[in-house]
Every structure is written in structure tokens, then in C-alpha cells.
Amino acid sequence: MKESIELIKSEIGSATLVAVSKTKSNDAILEAYSLGIRDFGENYVQELIKKMDTLPQDIRWHMIGHLQTNKVKDIVKRNIYLIESVGSIKLANTINKEAIKNEKTINILIEVNIVNDPNKTGCMLEDLDDLINESKTLFNINLLGLMAIGPKGSDEEINSSFKKMNELKKKYNLKLVSMGMSNDYKIAIKNNTDIVRIGSKIFGERIYKEKE
Fold this sequence. Notes:
By secondary structure, this protein is of the alpha/beta class. The chain has one domain (2-203): Alpha-Beta Barrel (TIM Barrel). The chain is built from nine helices and eight strands. It has helices at residues 2-12, 26-34, 45-54, 72-76, 89-101, 128-135, 155-171, 185-190, 200-203, and strands at 16-20, 39-42, 60-63, 80-86, 106-111, 141-147, 176-178, 195-198. Helix 2 links the parallel strand 1 and strand 2 (39-42). The chain is globular, with a radius of gyration of 16 Å.
């Protein structure tokens, strides 16, 4: 693991490395933690909560998977660092409502459905204006930027999508863009991503569990 982390860090430069720890044990996370990783990403709320409650409190937890509105309260009342997967006005409003209850401000990224595929998660491109404008009116959420999952396709298609994400970041005058995973982070780095989300290149292949 040490060699993998050192190599990735040398490749990504100043970008933030989020170690995607879904399905991984606390021991594996603590090994990465001992090697200097502080940002970890989880996809499922139930798994995230268990880890937040038992692992070091200075870990910066990123919620990177689909988030149902009825589970927002469970992570907002804990020490969530960044919700990267906000894809609807309804979800943004729910996060803001729970943040008010807990007297917090919650950092978020808007997940962009960069391929505009209705079968995938994230905000469709035609709805992005409305979601960004609404998010900026909500005082207890802090919109930092955008997130996307690269398309399954050629390097050229991935590069085009990541280039589009940077254009959107500039258009809306946002601070961050989160893009790039184990299979395409090098393309994301070429497109000046601020955050990469890497799992298997750090922890090895995952054993998938049933979704919540």
C-alpha cells in the first residue's frame, strides 16, 4: 500500500487524494491513515456511519455515493466533511434543513451527470443552472464545486468530459472539481482536477456487498 500511495501522490501533484474505502475494513483504512491519508470516501450511508463512529475523528469523510434524502440526517449530525453527490434541489434543501437543525454548515459538491444519461446519477446538464442557483441561496450549505464520474469509453471521450467539467467550474465560478478514479485519474490530472477518488489502486479490488 505504501508504494501505491507514494506513486499516486507523485502523479497527482497538489490535487487532494480521497481514498475510496467502501467495503474495506477498519484495519485497511487505518493502514492508509498511518501512511498520511486523511481523506476517505464512502458510497453507502450505513457503512459510512459505522466507520465515522469508530475511526479517528480527524478523518475527513467524503460521501461520494448516491444519497437518499431520508438518510441525510444520519451523516449531517456526525462529522461529515464533504458531500460530493448532490444531484437535485430536493437533496440540497434536505441537507440545508438538517444542517440548520444541527447548527452546522455542510460543504457540498454538485454531482454532474456529465454524459447526460437519465439512467445514471447526478444532475442533468439542463437542470444544472437551477440546482446551482438554488444551492447558493441556502445559507447552511457551502457549495464548493462540482463532481463527475467519467464515462465508460475511450480516453478521448473521458478527456472531453473532464474538459467540459472544467468549463462548468469556470462558468459558475466555483472552487473545486472532483473527477478521476483508479481507471482515469491520470486523464483527470491532465485536466486540472482538484480531487481524485481512488480505491482499487490503493486497497486492491473490492468485494461488493448488497446496496442499502
